[in-house]
């Protein structure tokens, strides 16, 4: 009987672990966010940890990044913007080493997806449309964020991108790069 109890308990513990990790989601598009009463925005592709449901429409989430005043970046290099708000990201949150913080925000559930491919579908299509007329497409994950910045400096002329198109492609490439949102970070 004791053994069975132990097994049941460990199953329960395991079960709750897998629930926790399956609650990780991604932001489907740039979303308005309420950071403890302060307005802000979280940007497309950001990995999101669900804290709890608020009601049918809203959910409390956690995001993380390196804070620079009212901006939050994915790394110290400030290459990939995670979120912005009206006010500093550090004041209310205990800053750990390197300015890395975890921040809670309320957002609408409709902005969330479990499928990271869905987030970047249109971006990816545009990227391959614009960047494969002279050579095969280089997968985003084959370069770092800073390498992509440098490459785009040359290639934007080749592909005749305007600034908006350049930023659009750059967001996609950086988020999916070697040191972007979904791979192990370099710094
Ligand atoms: C008009 C033709 C043309 C277009 C369009 C073009 N490229 Fe290139 N690309 C080249 C040529 C030529 C090279 C090799 C010479 C060089 O590196 O300058 C190259 C090289 C590259 C490299 C390898 C660079 C390295 O250092 O390894 C990458 C990555 C790349 N391009 C990405 C892109 C991206 C992203 C786009 C779309 C924004 C793009 N290319 C659009 C012609 C093009």
From TrEMBL:
GO terms for molecular function: electron transfer activity; heme binding. The keyword Signal applies. It comes from the Bacteria. Keywords: Signal. Residues 1-22 form the signal peptide. InterPro entries: Cyt_c-like_dom_sf. The keyword Signal applies. This is Molybdopterin-containing oxidoreductase I, DMSO/TMAO/BSO reductase family, monoheme c-type cytochrome. It comes from Aliarcobacter vitoriensis.
